[in-house]
Write a structure and sequence with these properties.
It is a single-pass membrane protein. This protein has 368 residues and is of the alpha/beta class. The protein is built from twelve helices and 13 strands. Helix 5 (104-112) runs antiparallel to helix 6. The protein is elongated and about 70 Å long.
Length: 368
C-alpha cells in the first residue's frame, strides 16, 4: 500500500468560526493519515485562557513536535501564527502553506488606527513570513492580484463552497424546526411585537402549530399570514454594521404605513389583532432572526428594544450545528453585512437552489 503523508491545519482562535479551515481539514483527512496529539488539546483546555504566554509556548512546542509533511495555516491572524508555523516547518522539514482570508494588519488597524507604528510592524512580519511559504491560497481574484503585485506572493484562488447539507429545507423539516424554536420565536421574555401579539394561542412546546406552519391531520401547511423570514448571521463584531439593518427595518415599517395611509399615532394593537384574526396584508410582517455570538450583541439588542416597530420583529439566537443549515434553508431572504478590512476578501456564502445558504457550521454570514 502506498504510504500517504501527514498534514497539520493550524488555526489560532475558535475553529468553529473558521468553516473554510474545517473543510480543508475534512478534505485532507480523506487523503492523509492523521494522528491527533490528544494530551496537547487536554492541556489547552486546562490552562487558563488568560495565560497567553503559556498558551503561545505550548503552541510553538506543539508545532515543532508534530511530524507532519504539510502545515496549513489560516491568515489572519498571522502573527505569531505565521512565525511559529514557519519555524516548525523548517525544523521538521515540512511544506508550509498559507490560506489568505484577509490581512492581519488591516484588522489591527481597525482597533489601533492605520497610522499606528504597530500596524507597520505587523505588516512587515506578515509580508516577510508570508513570502517564505511554500504555497498560498486565497479567496478572491482581487486578493490574488494584491498578493502578486504588492507582496510578491503567487496564490491560487480557491473559492468557498458549502457542503451538501446546506440546501432548501423541506416543509416537514421546517415544521419540526419551528416546533423546536417556538418558545424562542413566539414567547421570548419581555418582548411585545407583531409576532408575540399574534401567537398567543401557540404553546411554547406546541407540536401542531408554529409561527410558519400548521399540522392538520397528517398534512403540514404553510400559514397564509406568516411573516417573511429574513436571516442574518454574524459574529457581532465592528466589521458588521447592524445599524444599517436596523435603519432598513425602520424604513420598511414607515413606508408600509404610508402606503396603507395609516396614521403614525395608530394603535399597533389594532393591527396585531387584525393579523391574529387572519387578515392578510399586501405587505407582510418581517421577522429578522440574527444568529451568532459576539461582543456587540447586547448593544444592538438594546437598540432593537427602542425601535417600537409595528410590522417588524427581531430575534437573536445561537443555533446548533444541526439546526443552523435548516434555518438558512427556510429563509425567504438572507442579509450579509460583513465589511472586509482589506476590501479584498468575501464572506463565505452562496445562493443555492433559490434559497439563501452559507457554508458554516456555527457562525454566520449570509447573502442573497
Amino acid at each position: 500500500m502506498e504510504k500517504r503523508g501527514r498534514a497539520c491545519v493550524v488555526v489560532l482562535g475558535d475553529l468553529g468560526r473558521s468553516p473554510r479551515m474545517q473543510y480543508h481539514a475534512i478534505s485532507l483527512a480523506r487523503q492523509v493519515l492523521l494522528h491527533p496529539w490528544k494530551w496537547t488539546l487536554l492541556l489547552m483546555e486546562v490552562l487558563n485562557p488568560t495565560l497567553l504566554l503559556w498558551r503561545m509556548n505550548l503552541f510553538i512546542f506543539t508545532q515543532w513536535y508534530c511530524l507532519e509533511e504539510y502545515r496549513w495555516a489560516k491568515n489572519p491572524p498571522s502573527v505569531p501564527t505565521l512565525v511559529a508555523v514557519k519555524w516548525a516547518s523548517s525544523l521538521r522539514k515540512s511544506a508550509f502553506i498559507v490560506d489568505w482570508h484577509n490581512f492581519g494588519y488591516t484588522l489591527l488597524g481597525l482597533s489601533v488606527g492605520r497610522s499606528s507604528p504597530f500596524v507597520s510592524i505587523y505588516h512587515w512580519f506578515e509580508k516577510h513570513y508570508g513570502q517564505m511559504a511554500n504555497g498560498a491560497l486565497c479567496v478572491t481574484r482581487a486578493m490574488q492580484h494584491e498578493l502578486a503585485q504588492n507582496w510578491g506572493i503567487r496564490a491560487t484562488v480557491l473559492y468557498d463552497q458549502p457542503p451538501e447539507f446546506f440546501c432548501p429545507t423541506s416543509l416537514q423539516e421546517k415544521h419540526k424546526l419551528f416546533c423546536r424554536l417556538n418558545r424562542y420565536l413566539c414567547h421570548p421574555l419581555g418582548v411585545q411585537d407583531c409576532v408575540t401579539a399574534t401567537t398567543t394561542g401557540i404553546g411554547a412546546d406546541d407540536q401542531n402549530e408554529t409561527l410558519f406552519t400548521t399540522l392538520v391531520d397528517k398534512d403540514i401547511l404553510l400559514n397564509p399570514n406568516r411573516p417573511a423570514l429574513v436571516v442574518s448571521s454574524t459574529s457581532w463584531t465592528p466589521d458588521e454594521d447592524f445599524g444599517i439593518l436596523l435603519e432598513a427595518a425602520v424604513m420598511y415599517d414607515r413606508r408600509v404605513a404610508a402606503l396603507l395611509d395609516e396614521n403614525d399615532s395608530a394603535d399597533e394593537g389594532v393591527l396585531w389583532k387584525e393579523i391574529s384574526g387572519g387578515k392578510q396584508y399586501l405587505y407582510p410582517r418581517l421577522l429578522f432572526i440574527i444568529t451568532g455570538k459576539g461582543p456587540e450583541k447586547e448593544k444592538y439588542e438594546e437598540k432593537i428594544k427602542r425601535l417600537n416597530l409595528k410590522r417588524v420583529a427581531f430575534r437573536t439566537m445561537w443555533l446548533s450545528a444541526e439546526e443552523y443549515p435548516l434555518l438558512l434553508g427556510s429563509a425567504d431572504l438572507g442579509v450579509c453585512l460583513h465589511t472586509s478590512s482589506s476590501g479584498l476578501d468575501l464572506p463565505m456564502k452562496v445562493w443555492h437552489s433559490g434559497a439563501p445558504v452559507k457554508a458554516f457550521l456555527g457562525k454566520e454570514h449570509l447573502q442573497r
